Amino acid sequence: MPEVHVHSETMLIASIAALALGPVLHWLSERARGAFAFLDGFVVVAVLGLALLEIVPLGVQLAGWPAIVAVVVGLILPGLFERRVGSKRTHAATSWVVLAGMAFHAFTDGMAVAGSHTHADSHAMEWAVILHRVPVGLAVWWMVLSAGDSKRWAAALVLALIAASTAAGYVFTDFVGAFEQGPTVGLLEAFVGGLLLHVVSHGLGKPKAPDHDHDHDHDHDHDHGSKLAPLLPGLGGLVGLGVVLWLFVYPHLDEGHGRETLTTFWELLLESAPALLIAYGIAGLLGEVLGEAPARWLGRGRAGGQTLRGVLFGLPLPLCSCGVVPVYRSLVNRGVPATAALAFLVATPELGLDAVLLSVPLLGANFTLVRVIVAFILALTVGWLVGGWLERKGGAKLDHAHEGAAKVDERSLPAKLVAGMRVGYGTVLDSTGPWILVGLLLAAFVQPWVDAESLTRLNPFAQVGAFAIIGLPIYVCATGATPLVAVLIAKGLSPGAALAFLLTGPATNATTFGVIEQVHGRKAAFAFVATMIGAVVSLGVLVNLLLPEFAGGAAAAHHHAGHSPIAIASAVILGGLFVVSLVRQGPRGFLGRLWEQGGHDHDHDHDHDHDHDHAASPSETKPESSCCSH
C-alpha cells in the first residue's frame, strides 16, 4: 500500500535525523558550564544500556550460547593487545572497530523500520528505533572526538556512514532478511557489544572538557555551583538510566529477545537483596563496632589454625554468595590473614544452616553429611593453599593506617553504629556495587542458556567437570540450589556432579573473582579459580567412586514461590542505594571499580579522571563484593 511505504519512509528519515541531535547536544554542552559533565554521565549509561540490553541480547538470540563467548572475547581482547601494541593505539583502534560495528548494527535498525508495519505494535517499534538513535548519535560524536587527534569532520563522516547503513538496511530488507537472522550476524553483534562494553567501562570515549573563558572573577572558586558540580556526572547517568529503562527495558516486558534475561535478572535481584542488605550492615559494623577483636582472633596461630577459624567464624552468619564478599573485604581491611579470610569466603555460603537443614529431606541425611564434609574440606584446602601462598607473598597491599586509631576509639556505641552504617552502605557499597551488578547480569544472560537436563546424559565423570564449570558464573545460593540439584539427581545426575555444582555455585561468581583481583591481584584471582576447579573436580570424582549409586531424599519440585514483601522491599531499597552510589561517584567512577587491582598498580594509561569530587576515589575506598541470597 502506498500509505504504508510513505509512512515507512518518513520513519526512516526521522531515524536518520535523530542521529543529528547528538552533535547538537554536544555543541550545547560546550557552551553551558556543568552541562558537559552531565552529558558525559548520560552518554556512559546510555551506551552501556545499548550494549547490554539491545546489542548483546540480539546476538544471543541469533547465535545462542556461542554469542556469550563472543561477548567475552570482545571484552578482553583489547586488553590483551594493550600489552603488545600499547594502550593508546589499542584504545584508538578499538574505538574505531566499535564505531564500524555500530554502523553494522544500524543496518539492522533500518530493517526494523522497514518491517515494523508487520508487527502488532508497529508504532512502538518505530519510535523505539528512532529514539534510541539520539544517544547513539551522541555517543558516536563523543567517542570519535576522544579517539586520538580526531576532528569533527571525522565524527560527521562516521554519522554519515551510520545513516547510509540504516538506509541500506531499509532498502535491502527483502534480500538479506534470512542472513540477518543467522548466527553469523548474532556472533558479530555480540562481539561488537563486548567491544563497546570494554570501551565504556575502561573510561574511553570521553573527549576533553571545553575551556570556558569566563570574563567574571574566578576568585570565588565557583561557589555558585560547587555543591552540585560533583554530582553532575551522576545526575546525567541517572537520566541516562531512565532513558535506558524506557527504550530498552519497558518495550521488552511482555515480549522480545530481552524478556527472559530481564525476568531472570529481577528474580536474582529479589533473591539477593535481603542478604545483601544484611551483609552491608555486617561489613560496616565489623570494623566500627567490633574493632580489632575478630581480626586478632582470626590471626592467631599458624596457617592451619587460621584456616579453621575462618571456617568457624562464618558458620553462624546468614550470608550466601552475595553477602559474604563485602564481609570478606572488610575482614581483609582489618588485617585478617588471607588464609582465614579465604576459608571464610568459601565456607560461609556453602555451610549455611538453612541449606544444611533443607538438604536432609531433599537429598537425604547421608548425602547431606557428605555435602558438609566436602564443603569443609574445600574451604580448608583453598584457605591453606591459596591463602598461604598469598601470605608468603606478603598479603594484600591495603592501607591499615586506621587500625591505630581504632585502638583508642572513644566514641559512644550509637556513634559507632552510625559510622558503621555509613561505611557499610556507603564506602563498601560504592566498591562492590559494580561487581554485584556484573555478577547478576552475567548470571541473567547465562542461566537461560544452560541446558542442565541434557548434561545429565554425559558420562558421570564428565558431568563433574561440566557442572563445576557451570557453577562458576551462576548466581545461586546454597539453599536455592538444593531443590534444583535434587531434581537433577532424580533425572540421573551423578552425586559427584551434584556436589560440584553445590560447591562452585554458592562460593564463586564474577563478583568473587573481581574482588579477589581488587584485593590481592589478578594472579591471586586465577590461583583461586584454578584451585577451586581442581579441588572441586577431585572431590566430585572421589564421591562418584565411593558413592556410585545414590538416591535422593523426598521428591523435590523446583519452583519459584511468590516472593515475600520483604524481598520486594529489599530489592527496592538496594536499587535505591545503587542509584545513590551511581550519583555519588558518577558513572565513570562507578565503572572504575571494575578495574581496580590489588598487589600491583593497574597498568593502564587511559583516562580515569572523574569530573567530580566524590568522597573517595577508587584507590581510597577499595571494593568489597557480593552476590545472592537465601
UniProtKB/TrEMBL annotation:
GO cellular component, one term: plasma membrane
Bias (Basic and acidic residues) ranges: 208-225, 601-615
Keyword set includes S-adenosyl-L-methionine: no
Membrane-spanning residues: 12-28, 35-56, 62-81, 93-115, 127-146, 153-172, 184-204, 228-249, 269-290, 311-328, 340-362, 369-390, 464-490, 496-516, 525-546, 566-583
GO molecular function: metal ion transmembrane transporter activity
Localisation: Cell membrane
Positions of region (Disordered): 206-225, 601-630
Membrane-related topology note: Multi-pass membrane protein
Polar residues composition bias: residue spans: 618-630
Glycoprotein in keyword set: no
Matches recorded under Pfam families: ArsP_1, Zip
Keywords: Cell membrane, Membrane, Transmembrane, Transmembrane helix
Superkingdom in the source lineage: Bacteria
Family affiliation: Belongs to the UPF0718 family.
Matching PANTHER family: UPF0718 PROTEIN YCGR
Protein name as annotated: Permease
Annotated source species: Plesiocystis pacifica SIR-1
